[in-house]
């Protein structure tokens, strides 16, 4: 049999959003016009519910008028809301403190509520590369203190909201110097500072519509059926290449999916959506007018609606430009999952094997 871990096929065909998904009519819920500082794009927001209010941490990119790269500035904003839709934004961008200095260009932040603390997991861009990290909120203002940093090249670090079998758990997504695809990994820690026992969490090959990379989206949500992970999955197809502000010949498509992991042992995949949950289709998600990239849905927040715990709220960045909200009934989402197990139990399948015996 052809090795499914190698050279994933390019043409994934047309993709559509799950018919049970409901996009909020007032989308986007946060844009550059809603923040009190200069911004070109406000997107990819971590969202959670903390001490009775929704809290949001959007990525904020500032470019010059021609949108020339690189950006003038990148960072993460912070805001609060009673309804998850209207946000009261803090006047300044977040400050993430590390060894008496501030981390530069903190982006793509997720928010986890853990043991009554509010934690940010993020990626920051620095002159040595991109690194991920986790920081804890000081409880007031926009100040966070680093708890741990990872090494390059990683993005999409996500922290579980509780200890699992006595250990803290995080997801991470290293890049690969040999090229695509990139996969989701996990690590555990006794204290949030020292992390180990890394293994594969979900392989790109496990997501039928991906051929480039996948990454954890939001902190996993505990349900009575198991741990629910909302993730992004990327396929590239040269036939789709368009010129967008981010890049000439952009041929990627970021779509959102869901996977379910065992409640007692979340390293075990038990089900996955064989088709995406959200694909860029709405006018504010596609058509690249005012967007930075085409075909991009980037989820970073997922929570059970505190007013209706049968409904999952998913916050996602659209086109690297705006922050949007969609909801889906938990039951409909469960009905969209297909039982599955990870193709590779551990990441020890030999490199560059063309034929695979299925083990
Ligand atoms: C990823 C990250 C995200 C972004 C996505 C699409 O690599 O940089 O912040 O939304 O690409 O451009």
Which short descriptors sum up this protein?
359 residues, mainly beta, six-stranded mixed β-sheet, 1 helix, 27 strands, 2% helix, binds beta-D-mannopyranose
Can you put this structure into words, describing what you see?
- The chain has about 350 residues and is mainly beta.
- Helices cover about 0% and strands about 45% of the residues.
- The protein has one helix and 27 strands.
- The protein has a six-stranded mixed beta sheet, with no helix packed on it. Strands 17, 18, 19, 22, 23 and 27 form a six-stranded antiparallel beta sheet that branches. Strands 2, 3, 4, 5 and 6 form a five-stranded antiparallel beta sheet that branches.
- Strand 15 and strand 16 (about 195-200) form a beta hairpin.
- It is globular, with a radius of gyration of 19 Å.
- About 45% of the residues are buried.
- The structure holds beta-D-mannopyranose (BMA).
- Beta-D-mannopyranose binds near residues 298 and 317.
| N/C terminus separation | 11 Å
The H-and-E topology, N to C, reads as EEEEEEEEEEEEEEEEEEEEEEEEEEHE
Mean pLDDT: 95
Instruction: Assign the structural class, choosing from mainly alpha, mainly beta, alpha/beta, alpha+beta, or little secondary structure.
Output: mainly beta
* Order of neighbouring strands in the sheet with most strands: 8-7-12-11-10-9
Q: Hetero groups bound?
A: beta-D-mannopyranose
């Amino acid at each position: 049999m052809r090795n499914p871990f190698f050279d994933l096929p390019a043409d994934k065909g047309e993709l559509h959003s799950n018919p049970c998904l409901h996009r909020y009519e007032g989308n986007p819920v946060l844009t550059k016009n809603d923040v009190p500082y200069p911004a070109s794009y406000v997107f990819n927001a971590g969202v959670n519910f903390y001490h009775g209010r929704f809290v949001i941490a959007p990525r904020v990119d500032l470019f010059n008028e021609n949108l020339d790269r690189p950006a003038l500035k990148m960072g993460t904003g912070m805001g609060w809301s009673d309804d998850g839709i209207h946000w009261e934004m803090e006047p300044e961008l977040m400050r993430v403190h590390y060894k008496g200095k501030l981390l530069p260009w903190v982006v793509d932040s997720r928010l986890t509520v853990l043991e009554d603390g509010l934690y940010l997991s993020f990626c920051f861009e620095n002159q040595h590369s991109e690194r991920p990290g986790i920081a804890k909120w000081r409880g007031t203002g926009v100040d966070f203190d680093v708890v741990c940093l990872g090494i390059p090249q990683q993005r999409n670090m996500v922290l579980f909201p509780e200890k699992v079998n006595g250990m803290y758990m995080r997801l991470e997504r290293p890049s690969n110097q040999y090229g695509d695809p990139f996969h989701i990994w996990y690590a555990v820690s006794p204290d949030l500072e020292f992390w180990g026992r890394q293994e594969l969490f979900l392989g790109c090959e496990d997501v039928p519509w991906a051929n480039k990379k996948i990454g954890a989206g939001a902190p996993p949500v505990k349900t009575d059926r198991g741990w629910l992970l909302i993730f992004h999955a990327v396929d590239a197809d040269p036939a789709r290449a368009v010129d967008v502000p981010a890049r000439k010949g952009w041929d990627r498509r970021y779509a959102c999916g869901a996977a379910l992991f065992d409640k007692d042992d979340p390293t075990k995949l038990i089900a996955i959506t064989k088709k995406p949950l959200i694909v860029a289709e709405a006018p504010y998600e596609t058509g690249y007018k005012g967007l930075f990239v085409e075909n991009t849905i980037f989820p970073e927040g997922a929570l059970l609606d505190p007013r209706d715990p049968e409904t999952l709220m998913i916050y996602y960045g659209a086109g690297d430009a705006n922050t949007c909200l969609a909801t889906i009934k938990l039951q409909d989402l469960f009905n969209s999952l297909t039982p599955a197990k990870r193709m590779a139990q551990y990441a020890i399948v030999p490199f560059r094997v063309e034929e695979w015996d299925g083990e």
